[in-house]
Please model this.
Amino acid sequence: MAAKRATRSTRKSNASKEELLQYYKDMLLIRRFEEKAGQLYGMGLIGGFCHLYIGQEAVVVGLEACTEEDDKRITTYRDHGHMLACGMDPKGVMAELTGREGGLSKGKGGSMHMFSKEAHFYGGHGIVGANVPLGAGLAFSDKYKGNDRVTFTYFGDGAANQGQVYETYNMAQLWELPVIFVIENNKYAMGTSVQRATKSPSLWERGAAYGIKGEEVDGMDVLAVKEAGQRAVEHCRAAKGPYILEVMTYRYRGHSMSDPAKYRTRDEVQKMREERDAIEQVRARLLEADPKVEDELKAIDKEIKEVVNAAADFSKESPEPALSELWTDITIEA
Amino acid sequence: MATEILMPALSPTMEEGTLAKWLVKEGDTVSSGDIMAEIETDKATMEFEAVDEGIVGKILVAEGAEGVKVNTPIAVLVEEGESADDIAAPAAAPAAAVVEEAPVVAEAAAAPAQVAVDRSPDYPEGTEMVSTTVREALRDAMAEEMRADDTVFVMGEEVAEYQGAYKVTQGLLDEFGARRVVDTPITEHGFAGIGVGASWGGLKPIVEFMTFNFAMQAIDHIINSAAKTLYMSGGQMGSPIVFRGPNGAAARVAAQHSQDYAAWYASVPGLRVVQPYSAADAKGLLKSAIRDPNPVVFLENEILYGQSFDVPKLDDFTIPFGKARIWREGSDVTLVSWGIGMKYALEAAGELAKEGINAEVIDLRSLRPIDMPAVIESVKKTNRCVTIEEAWPVASMSDHIGSAIMREAFDYLDAPVLKCTGKDVPMPYAANLEKLALTSTKEVIDAVKAVTYR
Model:
């Protein structure tokens, strides 16, 4: 199949082939995983709410490329991509989506609630905006301990209108917390476009009211995301306080599986997919530099397909949790 | 290889739908993300996208078909050179995708029984006692735990430089410095969330609310973020945090500053809820709360802050949760209370004794876990029970206790269980009305006389 010609940033980049291949692979894993999740939802294997990350892959992949050991991340309910990007097991994620014993939360959290102490992934939060002070709290713990670790706190353009976000901005700057606020602006808070929710010309600039630095980033260009991420990380590690990245992105699918997405035209979605797709941009960069890379890309496609299929199989084969699990993990008995 | 495309479930509640329109026809090539059909669900008309690449080999369900069950094959996708006719007709039955519901076994679904209760004394006999106010006891508990563990810190409004709005944190800033005694702006929702996040980051925060009335701004973090995360994470992520501050009515501060939240928080699985009365309990329970790996809601009382009680002089005095204290033994009626309700219970018991009625007085101390066995055991002996609390009467802790007594000691009861609670009104400001809105020693005496038929 001929590569679609994605319009890409004309910015020069000295990203190596290996680096680009890694981004391609990481983003493709999320894309294929989410497509499979959508399919399993359609088959009734996944229930309830299921918010897919398709279209937004460059945001988390670009920022994960800036992280170091023991950096932390926390996000909202649209969390599958973040978990895969920080190295959590696709099998465990998919089995959590199907509510099985092998899920990362033993089937008790579901799509919106997964955690990993090992990967420093702190959820998976279903209350819009609530993860923002929680993320600042994680950063508080690192500052308290006197290390230079950074917490990536992801939220959407919808959450950006919650009051607790600004309570958090205020304290984060006051206490110079090492937290990067990542606003994933995918243009729609469920069905309400950003323009219908605020007169603010931009979301990141609101940080200026608290003295927080920030910038807008092209979230469809993984290299642009990574470069901005590096500036933010450098700022935080140097104990200069928080930083805001408003990453302009787009979700191709509905807000959740049951969203008919009538608030935008099919053309709008198609245009983004065809002209701005993050995965196609990386693919185009690679092929432009070396047409022979096609074989490597095909090998990655195949590898990812196998990983995703294995995750799907595991998520079907893993048994439902034992009934006794209803009563465990409510409190820790000292 | 040919792939069956199944009627998708496109909402959490969809069981069947209408195949409104096909946007592809047999022979068309589709790739992942292409819209194949429009499907009407129980909620809306949804576009259905292809997941796999291939050629539409055969359309099995014509457009306009209504009541198509989820998981019915609706089309077959084939690869280049393959024909849908070459392959066996797809089975009409849905693929074995839907998980069969496991029958719920009654035993497995029953809550675990409460473990045996510790009835040992709180401290050894002969321990030297020191008269201490509740305020000092709380401060001492925090200071001792902060000395022992660097991850313990206090945050809240006016906790540091002002020395505490109610002076509970007096002296802590001087001893521990601004790193560990953190003044916050007036921003309960935000700092409660930061506290919970810090607890996940390996710290043990003590979050002070100037009063629990203001914690309503932060209740989402207490419940959704702190109480539920251990469960939602399959046991991985506990929240070792204490939320503390005065709760309930003070004096003449009117409706928005006078609510008792005991029953609200006690209804939440995942929380520990503590409401001490005496200074010794305040100290011993707060030390336990700070060490507890779970989120603890620690409900204090402004009126009690200045009252003095004997506190055992011990290097490390703690009281476990879920262990009631029997303040008075008696044979005629059981009075059950906690927090400031104990004041009425003890006063009433003193008065009643003069009339020859011997009340047993139980201080629950913690409400989740709750020492229900202590109550049941006592009621089996006295056959009568009156509960006392300051909160509103509807959906109260008293109701919870009353229902447990009915379930577990019904045959022992010689009278209905009565409750003395705050009245079912917002707290009035006027002195006379406020007095009327609270429960009182007289109400407790009257209730006891009613259940003892005197």
